């Protein structure tokens, strides 16, 4: 088989419950890797959480984490950070709109002030019991900025306040100091400027020498749009949001119906 780069989102794509991958999907990926494909998971999760999911079903998986701000290559880990200007803008906009932001390094969650219980629960739902993630509360923006060198990305949750999220997105984009995306309509993904999953995929294409037409990408959410556009073989899950299905070249079955496995099996058989 010619060399392929396979990149897949995790939640709503590889997994049905945020943690587990079906036997069929694991086998399809194992077959592709055994045949010479390079496989990456690409997620908004911090590296530690992405790694624990990927390694349980594909030991040879590499990681694109933090929506492209962090990725593995040739035994090294590449980092892009939000920076002080972006952190300050997020804190100011969040305070104005009564929203709460969480910030991530490879293995730690940071926040300022006190988190509402619903936001803390939303932040923890992606962490399996086998992984201990440090959660650090700091009293002020000034203290938050002392961690700027390790904070790669963040998220604002607003499950019951989409109007505030829309206003937050507009205000942050006007500041022009970071990239704002979303994995669902109930959050804002906070990413370093000029960075997203697509940026990581393109850098990996250049480093591996694998062309876009030999890059297969799977996704379901809004933060997968750029990654799909960077891949010659772009695949939306059956459960993907309409915007993703419009961009993708193919649509496969849903994440709970082994969509990734079905597509890979049929693609490589052909």
From TrEMBL:
Top-rank taxon, per record: Bacteria
InterPro entries: Cof, HAD-like_sf, HAD-SF_hydro_IIB, HAD_sf
The keyword Hydrolase is assigned to this record: yes
Pfam family for this entry, one: Hydrolase_3
Annotated keywords: Hydrolase
EC id: 3.1.3.-
GO terms of molecular function: phosphatase activity
Root EC class: hydrolase
NCBIfam families xrefs: Cof-subfamily, HAD-SF-IIB
Name used for this protein in its record: Cof-type HAD-IIB family hydrolase
